[in-house]
Amino acid sequence: MATKKNQSRETYQLKVTLAGSKPPIWRRLLVADMTLGKLHEVLQVAMGWTDSHLHDFDIDSVTYGEPNPEDRAMGLTPTRSEKTVRLSKVLGYPGAKANYTYDFGDGWEHRLVVEKILPAMPDAAYPSCVAGKGNCPPEDCGGIGGYENLLEILADPDHEEHEEMLEWVGGNFDPEAFDINKINEALAHSRRPQPGI
User: Fold this and answer.
1) pLDDT tens digits, 1-41
2) What are the backbone angles phi and psi of residue 43, rounded to the nearest 5°?
3) Which residue spans within 33-174 are E strands per DSSP?
4) Pairing with 12, which of 37, 50, 157, 172 sits 20 to 30 Å away (CA)?
5) What topology does CATH give the domain 10-135+176-189?
6) Dmax of the chain from CA atoms?
7) How far, in Å, CA of 191 to CA of 176, rounded?
8) Distances in whole angstroms, Cα of residue 42 to Cα of each of 105, 155, 184
9) Where are the domains of the chain?
10) pTM to 2 decimal places
């Protein structure tokens, strides 16, 4: 599959860290200017999530995501559409920060920071992952607290729930696993030309 080469003049170097993870689970990404909706898709792939739950971005106390028409009727501040806001408009400078929440039940909080804004390389294809550490926690394990509990159970063959949890994670789980090639292969599949991206 041919990938679309970057046409933008700038590349954003982002670091995303799963808040509360010890040791930190993080990714360093290079992305062209894109909508926050597209950035959500990139974050899902890079971190290893399955996009099975709701999410939003909090940037300078403004929430971006999928708007709910009932918010205004319920007296809530409306969520702005992530599909119409570009990275360059809300995170367009080095040091810019955002919080990205995935799965409001488990509450996976991610801290995003724009580390650098670089000139785009003419032959480079974005997005790409250039560094990282740690495996993505299993979906629906109960947030950071549930994840820590799961790791304790998996590390203790004598724990009464060990076999059950081992089966639940598919037979084995390595919290330190990080395969940059696998992530970049998945990101390559996300590089489909789309209007407005």
Assistant:
1) 334 444 457 999 999 999 999 999 999 999 999 999 999 99
2) -60, -40
3) 55-59, 62-65, 80-81, 97-102, 108-119, 128-133
4) 50
5) 3.10.290
6) 56
7) 27
8) 21, 31, 10
9) 10-135+176-189, 138-175
10) 0.89
